[in-house]
């Protein structure tokens, strides 16, 4: 959330004009992850891209700003595209949340799922083989194995691509799950555990969480220009 370019710069200058002390304090907090050097600049920008492009957020201005900054920091097209793919497949948490509840509530009223014909699930098998299978997916795999395999085919290629290191993938996954537009606790815990196992430090993981918090400044990025426009509209001619 740097103030170097893009729409945030205009919003920040207006904010500074109205409340310079708070604006400068906010800027110190918001820019901290870019200044500490705990994470490489490219990864910082890819994480910024992740929280803006996530299917739970879909912030067009922030997505463009962090795509530009990630490319400037040396990210390749394929690395940025991988983040966008990850931002899409996180929607599976709708099933992670809902399928266990469906099974529990159906059981409570004596409803049984219809028997399923055995179908091959090569993508699910691949996700298990590369260590990316989550047992939280078992309920919807049991309910819809063919569809689950079709979905997992979209994920297996992402995680098996080798474009980013295992640690980078886990740190990005923490950002997706811990972001304030999602706050998916099971995934956050799982990927913190995975990041530590992949060699991430506590400081690196904390930096990801800080970047999630910094995203909150988008409220000013969005609202300050609107407030300025509405005040101007009400001003005497």
Task: Give a quick summary of the entry.
With 237 residues, this protein is an all-alpha fold.
Which fold does the CATH topology of the largest domain refer to? AhpD-like
Strand content: under 5%
Taking all Cα atoms into account, the compactness measure Rg is: 21 Å
CATH class group of the largest domain: Mainly Alpha
Number of helices: 13
Count of strand segments: 0
Q: Provide the CATH architecture of the largest domain.
A: Up-down Bundle
Structural class: mainly alpha
How much helix is in the residues? over 70%
Low-confidence stretches: 3-7
How are helices and strands ordered from N to C?
A: HHHHHHHHHHHHH
CATH superfamily of the largest domain: AhpD-like
Biggest sheet character: none
Envelope shape: globular
Q: What is the distance, rounded to the nearest whole angstrom, between the alpha carbons of the first and last residues?
A: 36 Å
């Amino acid at each position: 959330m740097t103030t170097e370019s893009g729409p945030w710069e205009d919003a920040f200058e207006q904010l500074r004009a109205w409340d310079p002390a708070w604006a400068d304090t906010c800027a110190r907090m918001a820019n901290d992850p870019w200044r500490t050097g705990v994470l490489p600049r490219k990864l910082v920008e890819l994480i910024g891209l992740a929280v803006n492009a996530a299917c739970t957020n879909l912030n067009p201005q922030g997505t463009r700003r962090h795509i530009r900054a990630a490319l400037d920091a040396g990210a390749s097209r394929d690395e940025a595209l991988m983040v966008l793919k990850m931002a899409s497949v996180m929607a599976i948490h709708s099933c992670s949340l809902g399928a266990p509840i469906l099974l529990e509530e159906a059981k409570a009223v004596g409803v049984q799922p219809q028997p399923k014909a055995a179908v091959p699930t090569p993508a699910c098998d691949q996700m298990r083989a590369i260590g990316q299978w989550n047992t939280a997916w078992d309920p919807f795999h049991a309910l819809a194995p063919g569809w689950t395999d079709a979905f997992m085919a979209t994920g297996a290629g992402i995680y098996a691509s080798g474009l980013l290191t295992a640690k980078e993938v886990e740190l990005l996954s923490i950002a997706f799950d811990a972001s304030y537009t999602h706050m998916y606790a099971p995934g956050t815990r799982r990927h913190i555990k995975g990041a530590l196992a992949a060699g991430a430090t506590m400081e690196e993981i904390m930096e990801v969480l800080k970047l999630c918090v910094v995203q909150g400044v988008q409220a000013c990025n969005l609202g300050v220009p609107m407030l300025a426009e509405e005040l101007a509209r009400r001003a005497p001619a």
